[in-house]
Amino acid sequence: MDATRPSTASNGAALSRFYVICESSKTFKAVSSGYGNGRKLARANFSNGRQCARNFSNAEGSKLTAGGAYVTAESRTSFKGYYQSTSGTKPFLRTFLLFDGEGETSNARERAIGGHRAMFLKWQCRMERPQSKHADDDGFVPFGRLVDYTSGRSNGCTTWSKPATTEILRIADGNPTTLYIYPASQDINAIAKAVKKGTSLARAGLYWNEACLAAIGTPKFWPKRTLQPIINEWRSSLPKRPPLELPLCE
């Protein structure tokens, strides 16, 4: 994956930046993919825009992409709730392909980092469905609206369109596969240093997508040791609230 590339073209079409390569069959396919959106806190703004990523991190809770080496692991399918389709209400199940990392990405499991379809269910109410195996003790299930954010921002995971997710899961589920996400911290730091000095990236043997570099200015990697205390302090400052209870569906 090349996370330095823009998410969409000027006409809104999703741009390819995730590459599926199989050496044995000599096949290559490029698909769109999302990157981490980050956060904007009082002590640090490490949020990313919709078009280009500027901030990266391996800190838990940062909601940012961490570049580097990974290996795909097992997959888990979870129930997210019900939604309205043309043929009636249906359960939305999403499969999550876990990643195992090494070095700076070794905390991928701690961060719940992996790949999945770029879609979530925005809960709206509780629907009575006692016959559903997903119902709670009172016979209710969450009901909501499906939101497709293909090529948009994620909470740090790698996200794909529905067709790409189906293809990638077919290849990688139960079959550990290598994954490399560019840029890693050393790439980001080298680019930032070159930009500060006004050095030509091409002459220095460095790479960043030109359009996105012009848009973001200078990229930044936030190491866990720097960002984690800020995130932890922010979390501890949040007021305690009662658990969310959805209203009953009408």
Reading the helices and strands in chain order gives EEEEEEEEEEEHEHHEH
Q: How many helical elements?
A: 4
Helix/sheet category: alpha/beta
Distance between the termini: 44 Å
Beta-strand share of residues: 25-35%
| Average predicted confidence as pLDDT | 94
Query: What is the share of helical residues?
Result: 10-25%
Residue stretches low in confidence (pLDDT < 50, at least 5 long) are none
Folded structure, characterized:
The protein is an alpha/beta fold. Helix content is 18%, strand content 33%. It has four helices and 13 strands. Strands 5, 6, 7, 8, 9, 11 and 12 form a seven-stranded mixed β-sheet that branches. Strand 5 and strand 6 form a beta hairpin. The radius of gyration is 20 Å and the shape is globular. The relative contact order is 0.22.
Write the layout of secondary structure elements.
Elements: E1 18-22, E2 27-31, E3 35-36, E4 55-57, E5 68-85, E6 88-101, E7 114-117, E8 119-128, E9 140-148, E10 153-154, E11 158-160, H1 162-172, E12 178-181, H2 185-197, H3 210-216, E13 220-222, H4 224-237
Parallel strand pairs: 3-10, 4-13, 5-9, 7-11
Antiparallel strand pairs: 1-2, 5-6, 5-12, 6-7, 8-9
TL;DR of this structure?
The chain is of the alpha/beta class and 250 residues long. It has four helices and 13 strands.
Protein traits:
seven-stranded mixed beta sheet; globular; 4 helices; alpha/beta; two-stranded antiparallel ribbon
